Amino acid sequence: MLSYASFIVTPKHYVLSGMGVWSIFMADSRTNSAAGPPPAFGADLHLELRGPGLRAGLTDALREAVRTGRLATGSRLPASRSLAADLGVSRTTVVDAYADLVAEGWLTARQGSGTRVATRVPEPCRAAPDAPRARSDEHRPRYGLWTGEPDLTNFPRTQWLTAARRALTAAPHDAFGYGDARGRMELRTALADYLARARGVYAGPERIVICSGFHHGLALMAQALRVRRVRAVAVEAYGLDLYRDLLRNAGLHTPPLYVDEHGARIDDLARLRGVGAVLLTPAHQYPTGVALCPERRTAAVEWARATGGLILEDDYDGEFRYDRQPVGALQGLDPERVVYFGSVSKSLAPGVRLGWMVLPEELIPEIVTAKGHGDYMTSALEQLTLAEFIASGAYDRHVRSMRLRYQRRRDELVTALRQRAPGIRVAGMAAGLQAVLELPRGTESSVVQAAARQGLAVRGLTQFGYEVADCGWRFPERDALVVNYAAPSDSAWAGALDALCRVMP
Ligand SMILES: Cc1ncc(COP(=O)(O)O)c(C=O)c1O
Prior knowledge:
Arc Repressor Mutant, subunit A, Aspartate Aminotransferase, domain 2
């Protein structure tokens, strides 16, 4: 039998209307008035209570409403006592339904702020409201360990807002104009200071160009390389196909360099023809998690000096090292041969879409030209906010706090595997947001599938491998999982870890 409930979300109150249709105003759940029609500004939410069990029916209906976005992120649910009274069910039914949804990560319950829709619900995709509740529903990913994202629920909203307010208040009038294609001087100055201090980057503000993240910076670079008639950019044999595709779409060949436990095999550059640049993740190879060893760092710089080539250094998560001080950026070895790329996508959030390039002097006009042709500049207000965020010390504090959180997560991952799957080795350094779990030969795809059946989305290392037929070496037969332990919210982490351990061979 179907019954219908209708939530009306307003800042005021909620009521019960007759005939099995509930109209509920959710924000102040202590006020309960049956009088008067719902205010016109309320958002009507239709709930279908299905099946024989009241608790299961209510849980399903609320989950569905959150999943499809009809119950908005952060909105407050009615107090259990009031909702129970209005629905004519026991309070335990409502309390249990809420508890189930908190455990699943759809809702959060905090002393003093009630039960709210979680800021990051477990399933990113929004199913059509009437999608059939088919078998596949059981298998939808409840936990995501596959994205490259940091824990978005820990975005420092308050501090960011403070920085934004200060930045906007202090912004000169010219900040609202088109401005310098290199980006705001305030941000370039703050970054020059931060990068020199934290990453050993040699960077006067005049060498820095702001972009909308690494992806954008690499696109500008590819454009400049094409103008220079470069034909190929060597890449690490493991990496994101996104960046390889970007280079290829710009008309560049992308011969791969073999990656072993010392990082990319730089010696192989000498055997490749027409290579004008090499794209590296020296501090923490993505995704295998090794550092480029000192000899190869030197060899890379020597190759660049000898050939006039460029090293494109993607320092995507250089701040996150847990066992020692982070290794400094390669750029410090030769600022005229290394282009340094950084972004806030791991340290803050990818949605901010801010990144930077620290350029050899001779490249600055070429990159500025490329930037001027396409995306002239990144939002000045976001830049000023980030400048203020860095200059006030909030960025350092946030990175330090996230470093502790991610380190704890990584430790918990290592400990859980040691106890529950002692045969599985965690490869790579204690660093970054992802770890590589070595699996027995031939098990990778079955483990990925088993994980999916547990509601756990995770990727196999094979998906990051990149090989060409005539590269002169064979890809190692390596079965592994790439686990982004940083992505789940705090409330989802324990469940994700448990599900991961359960599928380990
Ligand atoms: C290897 C690597 N480089 C760079 C980035 C940052 O990219 P963007 O700044 O475009 O978000 C990421 C983000 O996930 C990454 O995985």
